[in-house]
Amino acid sequence: MLLFQTPTDSVENPEVQEKTLSIYQLIVDGGLGSIIIISILLVLLAVALYIYFERIFAIKAASKIDKNFMNQIRDNVSAGKLEAAKILCAQTDSPVARLTEKGIARIGKPLEDINKAIENAGTLEVYKLEKNVSILATVAGAAPMIGFLGTVIGMIIAFGEMANSGGQAEMGALAGGIYTAMTTTVAGLIVGIIAYIGYNHLVVKTDKVVHQMEANAVDFLDLLNEPV
């Protein structure tokens, strides 16, 4: 009786080795250019996060105001207690209080002058709220381009090695260089997306405070228009 060996019996199955990707290794293997690009992106990420959290806390503090603030202002102004109204505004640290204080200081002048003073003060308050927010927009636009620059540099280096080897470069080495170079694009996109989301969130929060300022300014002007 003949025994036949199947190919699976005579040939051992080669062990499949899984190659894990280390982010640190990808950055290091990309060479000096990749390290510089990633370092720049990390700095931009740190700047973006600092500006976002610093502004979000500042805007949150600016939006806090006592619901009875305008009622107390109305009572003091109606009673002719302008100094008491000014003291109340000075004790309240918010854009709305500072706008109201500007208006109270000009009571007795034409309503147009009071309105203009409040508008000028409002412009300054909005400028304070938007401090450094434009940097987030810059990071959101610049980070992906910086990442793409790193990828282009990596591709140039990879194809340069192929040209120097007379077209006989190992595909494994080329593939490794290419996916390492692509990490800069991924890093740039991540930083850009984070900065973009943070920027838009701050814009929405700032608009809410601006609307609150406008509503209280209108209430104050209506108070001055009320018949005595």
Automatic annotation (TrEMBL):
* UniProt entry tagged with the keyword Transmembrane helix: yes
Keywords, alphabetical: Cell membrane, Membrane, Protein transport, Transmembrane, Transmembrane helix, Transport
Q: Which residues form the MotA/TolQ/ExbB proton channel domain?
A: 92-214
Enumerate the subcellular locations listed in this protein's record, separating them with semicolons.
Answer: Cell membrane; Membrane
- Keyword Thylakoid part of the UniProt annotation: no
The UniProt transmembrane annotation reads 31-53, 135-158, 178-199
Main localization of the protein described in the UniProt heading: membrane
Gene Ontology CC entries for this record: plasma membrane
Q: Which GO terms describe its biological process?
A: protein import
Membrane topology term:
Multi-pass membrane protein
**Similarity field:** Belongs to the exbB/tolQ family.
Please report the name of this protein according to its UniProt entry.
Outer membrane transport energization protein ExbB
Supply the source organism for this entry.
Kordia periserrulae
